[in-house]
Structure formats: structure tokens, C-alpha cells
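Entry 14. Structure prediction run on the chain below.
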Amino acid sequence: MIDSANPEALKAALSVYHHLEPPILNSISGEKEKWDQLFPLVTEKKCKTVVLLMDDHGIPKTIEERVGIAQKLYRNLVQADIPPDYIFFDILVLSVAVEPDAALVALETIKTIRSNFPQSHITCGVSNASMGLPARKLINRTFLTMAIAAGLDALLIDVRDRALISTIYACKALTNQDPYCLEFLQAYREKKILV
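Output returned:
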């Protein structure tokens, strides 16, 4: 993943990227200036792309507004021959300490995006939900469980948090993303699962 808030830095990184697997560009959004700078680059390089569900008005408060942005950007990317599975929608989780319904909006957005764009991916910063609160790891694990059940399939997480990783294995088994629990059993045998 090539990640920067600076479009010029993203352009520079993509100009020297020479691996066989397409990079994931993080990120493009409905912000006109950013879109105008990065959309030609995404289509030229055929990048996988994180699509932030925001525009020049900021992060929408409602599910409908976020889905509207997703539909517009998805249509533009697919019409430019970017495969649907190259698109990673970032639903933009806000802190529940600041926006009390932020987690509920995020979860409903995940469900709606999953039903409208089944071939695309959904990602988010899981820990954003707990910003400003104590016991953040507990909130992060709980929110992650709920988000995976809603349809989240690409994660931005702290890979050093073994309890969180254990939760992911369990969630995948419970949501049929790990048929017959093979990954879970392997991780358990390798002592990657905390009990």
C-alpha cells in the first residue's frame, strides 16, 4: 500500500513502483482537487485503490450521503476499466466519544456498501471508533467483531495485538469466511489464538 495525504508524494511513489502486483493507492476521494490529481494516475497504472467516502463537504454524517459518494466514485472507476475488486471503500469511522452514533453509522454503511458493491472491498481504521476513550483495545475488538459481521473484509489494525488477531480468526469462522474453521484450527495449533 502506498499511503500519503500528499497527492504529489503518491505520484512520486507510483512512478518508481515496479512490482508485478498492482499497488494499493491510499487514497482517492470525492474531493475534486484530489480526484483530479489522482484519478488519471489510478487509471494509467491500474492501481488498486482505497476510496474514502468523503467529498469537498467533508465526511458525511448520513449513510445515504456516504453511499451516494461511493456510487459516483465506483461508477467513474469502473468506467475507466478499474475492476470492482480493485476498489477498497474506506467508510471513515469516527470516534464514538465525539459522535455517539458513529459506530452505528459505520456498521450500517458497511452493510449497505456490501450489498451494493459485492465484488469490492470494505476497509476502515478500526481503532478510530475508540479515539479519546480508555480501554481502547476492548472497544476496538468489539467494534471489529461487529464490523466483520456487517461485511468488513480489509482491515487496518495493530497486528501486535494478539487478542485482536484472535478475534479476527474467531469472526472469520463464525461468518463463514473460514469454511470448516481451517484457518482458526491452524492458528490454534500454532498458538496464535489467545483463550
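The beta strands are 2-3, 24-30, 48-55, 87-90, 121-125, 154-156.
Filed with the rest of this week's runs.
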